[in-house]
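Researcher: Go.
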Amino acid sequence: MVIARSLVQALREAGHEADIVLTPQNRFGRQGAAYLSTWLTDLGVGEGGTIDQVITLRYPSYAVRHERHVCWLNHTMREYYDLWERFSRPLSPQGRFKERVRRRMLHAADRYLLTRNVDRLFTISATVRERLAMWPSLRAGVLYPPAPQRPYRCEGYGNFIFMVSRLTPLKRADLLLQALASPEGKGIAAVIAGDGGERARLSRLVHEYGLGDRVTLAGGISDEELLRYLAQCRAVCFPPMKEDYGFVTVEAFAARKAVVTCVDSGGPAELVEDGVHGFVCEPTATGLAARLRALMDDPGLAERLGAQAHTRGAALTWPDTVRQLTIP
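Model: Structure:
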């Protein structure tokens, strides 16, 4: 919802009347019903009168029908795209067959809707666009979202690395812990914020690696706490696997902080130029630790890369985003 709320705010600031409409929830086993319900949703008229345009963001919202329809695709249903093998491997033969059929049907629906049901198509990263590369007719443009409209600030370059994310396996917070436990990461402190299914395992790893005096698992944090951690950290570490985009990257940029990410991290690796706005390294504990060490040993380097990251982030603006997403 972060991108939706930020977009609505930007549209209103540009003089448009805008609001969020939630489409039916997409649940496993009921994808067809969700797509059909969305297809039947009437967005011709709202409480304020005629709706002039719709901007849809994710599946299955792009199934809505409107004569002026722009899709800014956040992501497809990843289990049926880039995460197919990870998702289907544990299934029984019968379950895999059933999901393979469902996957083909969903691909057919997505291809039809994204080629024939929208007037313009953008994706939030090249990573998302590449998942649709089997359909050359899509011709999607890449439009990177700016940072959410919050009062970011920089209060210096403290003595800790900050990571914030939902704690799931794909976010690879465990890779950060492995880096800190390596010889190259000796003495580096970190705060990891967020909640999720991986939190208990990460807590065990902190104890197992002997990192209790250097790593804080902050759990879920408020917006104010997020801004404070961003303002005070030395740099931000964000090493996910094939991330759609990752707002934390541009949020770090807005707080003048360099970002350390990995070559297979997707969206963050598109935004961070290695050695300019931070570092893009191999997804290994030693590779990550070496870049974190460079920043912790040299506050001036962290400040220089953070300044360049701020310039990069400032080039992404909500007024320009609104201009590209609205049909004259």
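Model: The chain has a mean pLDDT of 93.
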